[in-house]
Amino acid sequence: MSESSQPNNNDKIALVTGAGSGIGRAVALGLLNDGFTVVLAGRRIEPLNELVQMAETAGQRALAVATDVRDPQSVEALFSTIKAHYGRLDVAFNNAGVNAPAVPMDELPLEKWLNCIDTNVTGVFLCARAAFGLMRHQIPQGGRIINNGSISAHTPRPFTSPYTASKHAVMGLTKSIALDGRAFNIVCSQIDIGNAYTELSARMTKGVLQADGRTAAEPMVDVKHIADAVCHIASLPLSTNILNMTIMASNMPFVGRG
C-alpha cells in the first residue's frame, strides 16, 4: 500500500476498482484532475503505485490498495483502509470486471462462468454493500455509487452468456441500490460503455464476431470520453442522478445489432 499526502477535510474521496489499467485508470486520472482524492483498488499493486507517483508529481492525492473484489475479506480490508484514512467516501466507481471465452455455451468451463460472475456480480455487490454502509453512517450522510455496466446489459454478442448475464445482473443491482439508497441520500448510476479503446479491446479493430456470423472490424471510442462521462456523473449534486448512461462509438453495431 502506498499513499501520497493527506487530504484536506473539504476534499471529496472517490474509489475506483480495477484502477490499474483501461477504463479504471482513465477514470482515476480524470477524478484526480477534478480534485478528488482517489483510492485506487486493483489486484496488481505496481500499476496502482505508478498512478500514486503520478498524482504526487501533479500535486494530487491518491491511495493504492491491493484488492481482489471477489474476496469478501479483501473488500472489507479495502473499506477499513478508506475509513481509517479518510473517514468517509463520496463516490465509488465499481469498474473491476472480466470476460469469459467466446465459445458455445456447452464448451464453456464452469470455472470461467464462476470467475465472471464472482468478479462482475459478487464483486460489484461486495463493494457496493461496503460503500453503502460507509455512506449511510458517515456525516454528512450520503454518497454516489457508479457501476460499470455494458452494452451487454441490454443486448448480447454471440457466445457471451456469462458476461451478458453478469451485466444484466448489474443493472438490477443498480436499480435496487438507487431505490434503497433514497432514505440515506445515496444515489446509484450505471454507465453502459460500448467499444472503449483500451489495450484489451484493441483486438476489436481487427474483427469481431457479429450476430449474423460475419467477422467485422468495429469502430472504437477514445477512453478519455468514457472518463469524462464518469467524472460528469461524479460531479453532480446528490439531488440529481443519471440512472443510466449509454456511451459508445457512434457507428458500432448496437442499435440494430443482429
Can you tell me about this structure?
By secondary structure, the chain is an alpha/beta fold. It has a single domain, classed as NAD(P)-binding Rossmann-like Domain (Rossmann fold, 3-Layer(aba) Sandwich), CATH 3.40.50. It has 6 helices and 12 strands. Strands 1-4-3-2-5-6-7-12 form an 8-stranded mixed beta sheet, sandwiched between helices. The chain has a two-stranded parallel ribbon with strand order 8-11. The chain is globular, with a radius of gyration of 18 Å. About 3% of the residues have low confidence.
- State the helicity in percent bands: 25-40%
Q: Summarize the helix and strand pattern as letters.
A: EEHEHEHEHEHEEEEEHE
C-alpha Rg (nearest Å): 18 Å
Mean pLDDT: 93
Largest sheet: 8 strands, mixed
CATH architectural type: 3-Layer(aba) Sandwich
Give keywords:
alpha/beta, Rossmann fold, 258 residues, two-stranded parallel sheet
Helix and strand layout, with pairings?
Elements: E1 2-3, E2 13-17, H1 22-33, E3 37-42, H2 45-57, E4 62-66, H3 72-86, E5 91-94, H4 110-137, E6 143-148, H5 161-180, E7 186-194, E8 196-197, E9 208-209, E10 215-216, E11 221-222, H6 223-235, E12 244-248
Parallel strand pairs: 2-3, 2-5, 3-4, 5-6, 6-7, 7-12, 8-11
Antiparallel strand pairs: 1-4, 9-10
